Amino acid sequence: MHSTVSMPMPRSRRRGVISQRGFTLLELLVVMVIIGLLAGIVAPQYFNQLGKSNAKVAKAQIESFGQALDQYRLDLGQYPSTEQGLAALRQAPPNAARWQGPYLKREIPNDPWQRPYQYRAPGTHGDYDLLSLGSDGQPGGDGEAADVTSW
Questions:
Q1: In what order do the strands lie in the sheet with 129-132?
Q2: What is the pLDDT of residue 140?
C-alpha cells in the first residue's frame, strides 16, 4: 500500500480562482440609507438637548446673580436700581459707603445666546426682575425661545 500525502501548494504557485472582495452599489446604498435614517432620528434629539442645556445655563447664572444680589442687599439695605444694574455687583456705585463687593468673582457674562441679561428693580414680579429672553430675544416664546426668569 502506497499512500500519498498532498501538500498545499505555496502561494506563489496558486493561480486558479482570483477572489475579489468588495461591496456592491446596492449594499452601499442600503448602508447609506440606514445611516441617514439614524441621523434623522438622533440629530433632532441632540439639538433639542443643546437648547435645553442653554436654558439650564441661563437659569444657573440667574440663580448665581440672585445670590449676589441678596448679599448686596444685606450690605446696603436695598437692591441695585435699574440704572445701576448688575454692574453694581462688580463695581461700587456712587454713594454706596457700605458696599463690600465685588459680589461676583468674574465679569457679568451675557446669556447663552450672547445677549445681556435684563435687570429691573423694583420688579413687577418681586423686589427685582432678572431675565434672559431666550434664543429668539423676544418676550415670551416656547421651547428654546422661552424666557428664563428669576421668579
A1: 118-120, 129-132, 148-149
A2: 86
